[in-house]
Specification:
This protein has about 220 residues and is an alpha+beta fold. Helices cover about 20% and strands about 35% of the residues. It has three helices and twelve strands; from the N terminus they run E-H-H-E-E-E-E-E-E-H-E-E-E-E-E. Strands 1, 2, 3, 4, 5, 6 and 7 form a seven-stranded antiparallel β-sheet that branches. A hairpin with a 2-residue loop joins strand 4 and strand 5. The longest helix is centred in the C-terminal third of the chain and has 19 residues. It is globular.
């Protein structure tokens, strides 16, 4: 499927060093949320200079992990509001008020030309932006969100039992989109967690309303 315009120039990832790791807690453990401030919206927060700095830092960390020490962040996609699947969600021991997915172009790295990030902002204003998809994947943030929720997380729980830190460590196209667009394309996403790595093979097919996908069982890999 064609990329969105702002994605002309990135799922995971996982190689970045989190500034403030988020983790789910039970309702009994969660402290009460502070009152929201006026103008406290995803749009206003994503437009701030502080967020742009975090976004660029996440992109550079990902590029360095791929050996691209001189890569430069480029234009960012509009933020896509996203709610973690487990609530309440915490950042630095405070409830997360806003989360969003956002892609940013990366120039000067042959391995990939964009990263997709997830940002969480707590009720006290603390924030963290981390890469969650990296590599050659052709999916946009909207489709990436569906793949994460419907394929990566379920298969991660199945194939990494007892592991709480399964992440997408890389993506690559295994069958590119051709002139026969109805045939779709295929990608391999490498999951990493607790010292293991496995591949998920994803097949994407255009539909009248967007893009559908199917996921294979992961297989052991040394990638």
């Amino acid at each position: 499927m064609p990329r969105r315009p702002l994605l002309a120039c990135l799922l995971l990832l996982a190689a970045c060093t989190p500034q403030g790791p988020s983790q789910p807690v039970t309702g009994a453990e969660a402290p009460p949320a502070a009152p929201a401030n006026a103008g406290d919206t995803v749009e206003s927060l994503a437009a701030s200079a502080a967020h742009r700095s975090r976004l660029e830092a996440a992109a550079r960390r990902s590029a360095v992990e791929y050996g691209c020490a001189h890569a430069q962040p480029g234009q960012a996609e509009a933020p896509l509001p996203w709610r973690p699947p487990v609530a309440p969600f915490m950042l630095n021991d405070r409830p997360v008020r806003h989360s969003w997915i956002q892609a940013i172009a990366v120039q000067g790295c042959p391995a990939f030309d964009r990263v997709v990030t997830v940002t969480s902002v707590a009720d006290n204003g603390s924030a963290a932006t981390n890469t969650y998809i990296i590599g050659g994947s052709q999916v946009d943030p909207w489709l990436a969100r569906d793949v994460l929720n419907q394929a990566v997380r379920p298969l991660g729980r199945m194939r990494f039992p007892g592991c709480d830190s399964v992440a997408v460590a890389g993506t690559r196209v295994t069958r590119p989109l051709t002139a026969n667009r109805a045939a779709g394309w295929a990608e391999a996403w490498t999951l990493s967690g607790c010292g293991q790595r496995r591949d998920i093979i994803l097949t994407f097919t255009p539909t009248p309303t967007g893009t559908g996908f199917t996921a294979s069982e992961p297989r052991a890999t040394t990638l």
